[in-house]
Amino acid sequence: MSLLSVSHLKAGYGPINVLHDVELTVEAGEIVVMLGANGAGKTTTMRAISGMIGRSGEVHFEGADIARATPDAIVRAGIAQVPQGRGTFPELNVEDNLRCGAYIRSDKEIDADIDRWFDVFPRLRERRAQRAGSLSGGEQQMLAIARALMARPKLLLCDEPSLGLAPLITQELFAVIERLNREMGLSVLLVEQNANLAMHMAHRVYLIETGRIVASGSAAELSADDSIRKAYLGF
Amino acid sequence: MKSLVTIKEGSIGHWVLRLLAAAIVVAIMLWIPTKGSNGLVTSATEALTLMSAAMALNLILGYTGQISIGHSAFYGTGAYVTGILVSKYEWSPWLTFPVAFLFAFVVGVLVSFPASRIKGVYLALVTLALALVFPNLLRWPKLESLTGGGPGIPNGDSALDTTGFNIGRRDGQMRNFEIFGWDPFGDLRGQGAIPFYYWIAAGIAVIVYLVIRGVVKSRAGRSLIAVRDNETAAAVMGVNLVATKAFAFGISAGLCALPGSVTAIRLGAVSPDIATLTILGSLTFLIIMVIGGAGSLWGPIIGAALYVFVTDRTGGWADDEAIPGVLRPFFGWSKIPPGSGIFAVILIVLMFVAPRGLVGVWKQYSPRVVRVVPRPAGVAHDAKPALVADTTTNSTPEGESE
Amino acid sequence: MALFLQRLVDGLSSGSVYALIALGLVIIYRGTGHLNFAQGEMALFAAYVVYQMGEWGLPIGIALVIGLATGFVIGAVAEVGLVRPISKKSPFAVFIVTIGLFQLLNWLSGAIWGDQVLPNSGVGSKQQQYPSLFPDQPDDFVKVFGAAIRYQSLGVLLLTLVITGLLFLLFNKTKFGLAMRAVASNAESAKLVGIRVNTVLMVSWGLAAAIGALGGVVFAGINNSVSLGLMFTVFIYGSAAATLGGFDSPGGAVIAGLAIGVIENMAAGYIGFIGQEMKLAVAFIVILVVLMVKPSGLFGTAKVERV
User: Fold this and answer.
1) Which of A222, C35, C40, C303 is most buried, by the most CB atoms less than 10 A from its CB?
2) Do chains B and C touch (3 or more CB pairs under 8 A)?
3) CA torsion angle for B181, B185, B189, B192 (degrees, to 10)?
4) pLDDT value at position C303?
């Protein structure tokens, strides 16, 4: 049984349908990357999985049907999303941002978890009392990832984490994601427009075009396809 | 949507339709003072007064999108200008109309400068504060010599009643105004000046309507609508925002002062306690405008007629015996007349089902019966090259309904 | 000195009411970005409810709890039933709906309790005066430097400060407060971390209306009566306080509310030119000038725009 399996997913905004028929799966412990151009439906897919927009089709997470669940139920089920553009709470300080991430939890280990992510992202510890809005783009992205992880998700959805970041910072972020995947078996579904860096860590890759999955396979398989390589990888 | 009848704009059929509508309006306006009861004439006068104020408000709210709940202050300005000039300086009431307009115009322009920097609900807040300050300003001891302070300018003191409107009355008798056997003051001239006030209110309503129609259909009016729809784009296209808004605010304030003057003349007295001079007046104008249809010429007219009809009918309903039997269970418990509650509910419900008001509903459904097809731009009188004709001929009629 | 002190205390006392109304406005603004024009009338209705409880012989404590609960329900129902569905249409529609609510609540108060000033033995009121939260007999005052400081004034000020303190704790020390701040900051992300944004907004409106209701009850107590026009000017003062403090700053609202209360009292007292009649002009000018010069207010963030 796949951790996440999506089929016949349709979604959009008001009368406009963006996703026509999206099929994808994420296995436990996998990093799956979805590539696509601007407007292909990457963000819409993420939002549909998280329950942020109206959708139809089937979405199963750990065997349970979550296609009609509310966003908070989906977070409780174990899916946390890092939204596009980071989506931190700019007026709240770094620590409160992390506490919001743990909103669905009521255990005693929240403080310990905050400390743990401060170990992973030491720069956040230095700025724990600063307003999130005053952080740099890279720091905010780290905060957004740490906040999502505070929910102790089984699956992390990352929406274009590289957006607006310098390549070096992006590399650093991806290294962290890879490490989390290796060390704690975190499953990741990551969408990217810019493929080069993401491809390196992907176990599997999907290509999305105008609301449909048009190709899928391992990173090596897709890189071997000339037309795909030219269109998406730029080499 | 298929319509029963389709007529071209400017065709004979369209003119017949227009004339028919105009004839009905004129007939109603003539019938009320000549054949209607005293009560009906008074109600109609009230409706015409409120309608003029709502039309004035509509000019800025409906056409430039600036929210004002301060128009009762302009209305009151008109009432007091007339009251003061007539009672203290013994002016003829006729002459006070232009002064009231100009005075309120200037006040409106002054208000518009801050207004052009403040938008939306914040402007509503500022104007709400203005509406609440205004009656206090009238009571202000520093202005008492002019405004009469708390009691205002009472009927007894005032020259309004004795010197003002003797234009039609000589020695307590109405002069004969028969025109080819038809008497505009009807059968009621013996009973005082009630129909006379009606004609003043009607005259003012017509003037306000024509001025607003002129403004809205002019180049300036198109700038106003451009400002409402997209301020930045309007500015980029060369609309002078500050000047346009100041002009609109000034005209709106000036026009709103005119029905205020009518009220002063009708009551023969002014005081800060007159409801239309307080925040209640502003709310009434707003309700009339929104219910009729913001941004349409006919909206305030229909809204005012409905408003006065309902408030008149339900005015005595604080007394349970006055309520028709069927409705008694619904309204009998209320200690005050249900009018304002009814309109509050209508206002809220309309926002959900028909945010463009009753006129909006009419525009939505009337094309099923009669559709007026606009004249193609290429064959209009100004005979411009029909470069844009393709886009305009296909568009639905977007002019305000006549 | 005595006169100055007197005016200061009077100003702080009416300023407390403005602060409570402003707090309600700010809580709603932070949550949904709306200016609730019905805030004052929600408080009015609650003030009438407390009067009615007093008529039925309930002690003021219980009457107050029922009044605040009424306020909470009105606010929550207004958000869920009216404001939330209409806010999808346009800001203008939201404005009209809050105006409609203003008129509806004012009418409803009149329909139930009539348009006389209450309590009124002429319409059969059993109470001599409006139920007061604090001792309010003619000799309930303490002399300080020659000024008669009424227990009522002190109590009202103290109450406002306590409420402010409690709100501060709610916002900063509780999980629900964290959720409220998160929703105010970024509603979209709040959903993504599992916060039930709709519940938060409903409770915010309820809380705001309840705090406003407290303001209404306190003001009716200061006034010794309740009538349909009670909250019109108080709402303007409260709005002026929220504007001056910054529409998204609860602390700013309280400071500005107290400041405006003191300023209007001092201005009316010491500047003969202004007098009692033009006190309200102080509020008008504050709103106008702040919106023109610094729309974010003294303590607000620049996020607040004039739109």
Assistant:
1) C40
2) yes
3) -170
4) 53
Asked if the C-beta of B141 comes within 8 angstroms of chain C's C-beta atoms, the answer is yes
Which chains border C (3 or more CB–CB pairs < 8 Å)?
A, B
Of residues B201, B199, B246, B242, the one with CA closest to residue B78: B201
Q: Of all residues in chain C, what percent carry a pLDDT higher than 90?
A: 61
Using an 8 Å CB-CB cutoff, list chain C residues near A76. Answer: 194
Residue type (1 letter), A5: S
Tell me if C258 sits within 8 A of C16, measured CB to CB: yes
Single out the residue of B270, B271, B268, B274 nearest to residue B160, CA to CA.
Answer: B268
Write out the residue range of the structural domain in which residue A10 sits.
4-89+154-233
Question: Is residue B340 within 8 Å of C103, Cβ to Cβ?
Answer: yes
pLDDT of residue B389: 35
Q: What is the CATH number of the domain that holds A194?
A: 3.40.50.300
pLDDT of residue B67: 86
Q: Which residue in chain B is spatially nearest to C307 when comparing CA positions?
A: B119
pLDDT in tens, A167-214: 888 888 899 999 999 998 999 999 988 777 788 889 999 999 888 888
Instruction: Give the closest-approach CA distance of C139 to chain B in angstroms.
Output: 32
Residue C119: asked if its preceding bond is cis (omega within 30°), the reply is yes
Residue A130 lies in a domain: no
Q: Is residue A10 part of a domain?
A: yes
Report yes or no: C286 and C259 within 8 Å, Cβ to Cβ: no
Q: Look at residue B156 and tell me whether its pLDDT is greater than 90.
A: no
pLDDT in tens, A48-98: 999 999 899 999 999 999 999 999 999 999 999 999 888 899 989 999 999
Q: Is residue A145 part of a domain?
A: no
d(CA A89, CA A17): 30
3-state secondary structure at position A29: coil
Chain C environment of B73 (Cβ under 8 Å): none
| Chain A residues close to C301, C-beta within 8 Å | 91
Measure the CA dihedral A171/A177/A182/A186, to 10°. -160
Whether residue C137 lies inside any domain: the answer is: yes
In-domain check, residue C184: yes
Number of domains in chain A: 1
Own/partner pairs, B339-343, CB within 8 angstroms, 24+ separation: B339/B310, B339/B311, B339/B314, B339/B315, B340/C103, B340/C106, B340/C107, B341/C103, B341/C104, B341/C107, B341/C108, B341/C111, B342/B310, B342/B314, B343/B287, B343/B291, B343/B307, B343/B310, B343/C103
Q: Mark yes or no for CB contact A88/C186 under 8 Å.
A: yes
Query: Is A45 a residue whose pLDDT tops 90?
Result: yes
Closest Cα in chain A, distance from residue C184 (Å) = 9
Single out the residue of C30, C305, C238 nearest to residue B118, CA to CA: C305
- Interval C175-182 mean pLDDT: 94
Q: Is residue C9 part of a domain?
A: no
| Structural domain range at position C84 | 17-230
Q: Does B347 touch chain C (CB under 8 A)?
A: yes
pLDDT digits (tens, 9 = 90+) for C216-274: 999 999 989 999 999 999 999 999 999 999 888 899 999 999 999 999 888 888 887 77
Q: What is the pLDDT of residue C65?
A: 96
C117 in reach of chain B (CB within 8 A): no
The DSSP letter of residue A230 is: I
